[in-house]
Design a protein that fits this description.
It contains eleven helices and 18 strands. The chain is α/β, with parallel strands linked by helices. It has two domains: about 190 residues, Alpha-Beta Complex (Quinone Oxidoreductase, Chain A, domain 1), CATH 3.90.180.10; about 140 residues, Rossmann fold, CATH 3.40.50.720. Strands 3, 5, 6, 9, 10, 17 and 18 form a seven-stranded mixed beta sheet that branches. It has a six-stranded parallel beta sheet with strand order 13-12-11-14-15-16, with helices on both faces. Strand 15, helix 9 and strand 16 form a beta-alpha-beta unit. Helix 4 packs across helix 5. The longest helix is centred in the last third of the chain and has 13 residues. The structure holds adenosine-5-diphosphoribose and zinc ion (2 copies).
């Protein structure tokens, strides 16, 4: 029987979010109901509310979550009731061209839950990024659940569901940062800071943080930046070159999502260096580059999609490193909040005051 729980709804374009009673159906074949313990507030939730992603209102927001599996539907074998899991955006098919080529993060045929969560009047809810975890319980495909060590705090585990994984993965998976590399990260919000933490984990010798906000640069140092550049004050390309013997960085990670910062990343890479775009541009953004500079500097220009992660490989691995004290995921949790405080969390995020506000249940 469907259960009634509290969830945070974005009712319409730019309307304030509100807590509502929602109905969560019993899990059907391949589905699971997860009791949510923590869920981070991400920019993407704000974009859903603003109508920046699509217009399938009302949305059930929240997608950076961890919790305990309550029940599973027919045919589910990978997870069982009682398992502590981190949720991911999409259950991949394992059979399409992308999956078969070992790049399931580009899966063409993802299977999220088939049933819908609804309002009490039957109105169907669109779950943010296929999850909808600003709710006491949510319905997902079982393939969206990755079991991790239950000893870790849910607020920390949930971070891996989106922004922190995107940043760490941009460094270790997409950028393939290696021991001794020089790495520059442009934009030091939650995603850029996670890229810095990832670069440190991978053994980078120099990690240059670039931002226009000195407060962000201070936090970046705590995450592992060895040098900082305020790009309001100094030309970041010149500064990165100066800090790398005139060469440029082996890997430059762009974590803003704007043409001008991408251009900086492009010119700040060493010969044969790698540029990783993890910041998400808007549809109208364009960038013109001299083709000769693409050719002449060599290397590669990549984009990173969800940190090019394999949840079943990367989530438990990063939690192990956190538990061992080699990666401080706790540093990304600025504050824990209640379900009714998401509008305030959006405001603080907009003002740049927090890395992550995390709703705990
Ligand atoms: N140069 C350098 N840094 C900049 C610039 C700029 N021109 N403009 C903004 N920034 C900095 C901000 O000061 C902030 O520290 O970029 C950072 C962006 O951080 P957040 O707004 O907290 O965003 P975050 O959650 O880190 O995501 C960054 O990655 O996944 C994507 O959609 C996400 O596009 C977004 C990007
Ligand atoms: Zn697939
Ligand atoms: Zn997110």
């Amino acid at each position: 029987m469907a259960q009634q729980v509290q969830g945070v709804i974005a009712p319409g374009k730019n309307e304030a979010v509100r807590v509502e009673t929602i109905l969560v159906p019993d899990p059907g074949p391949g589905e699971a109901v997860v009791k949510i313990q923590a869920c981070g507030v991400c920019h993407t939730d704000l974009h859903y509310k603003q109508g920046g992603i699509n217009d399938d209102f009302p949305f059930l927001l929240g997608h950076e979550a961890a919790g305990v599996v309550e029940s599973v539907g027919d045919g589910v074998t990978d997870v069982a009731p009682g398992d502590f899991v981190v949720l991911n955006w999409r259950a991949v098919c394992g059979q399409c061209r992308a999956c078969l080529r070992g790049r399931p993060w580009y899966c063409f045929d993802t299977h999220n839950a088939k049933q819908k969560m609804t309002l009490l009047d039957g109105t169907e809810l669109s779950p943010a990024l296929g999850i909808g975890a600003f709710a006491e319980k949510t319905l997902v495909a079982a393939g969206q659940c990755t079991k991790v060590d239950p000893e870790v705090s849910p607020a920390v585990a949930g971070l891996l569901g989106c922004g922190v994984m995107a940043g760490i993965g941009a460094a270790i998976n997409t950028g393939q940062v290696g021991r001794g590399d020089s790495v520059a990260v442009i934009g030091c919000g939650g995603v850029g800071d996670a890229a810095i933490a990832g670069a440190r984990l991978a053994g980078a010798a120099k990690i240059i943080a670039v931002d226009i906000d000195d407060r962000k640069l201070e936090t970046a140092k705590k995450m592992g930046a060895t040098h900082t550049v305020n790009s309001r004050a100094d030309d970041p390309v010149e500064a990165i070159r100066a800090l790398t013997g005139g060469n440029g960085a082996d890997v430059v990670i762009e974590a803003v999502g704007r043409p001008e910062t991408y251009k900086q990343a492009f010119y700040a890479r060493d010969l044969a260096g790698t540029v990783v775009l993890v910041g998400v541009p808007t549809p109208e953004m364009q960038l013109e580059l001299p083709l000769l500079d693409v050719f002449g500097r060599g290397g590669s220009l990549k984009s990173s999609w969800y940190g090019d992660c394999l949840p079943s490989r990367d989530f438990p691995m990063l939690i192990d490193l956190h538990q061992q004290g080699r990666l401080d995921l706790g540093a990304f949790v600025t504050e824990t909040i209640q379900l009714g405080e998401i509008e305030q969390a959006f405001a603080r995020m907009h003002d740049g005051d927090v890395l992550r506000s995390v709703v705990v249940f």
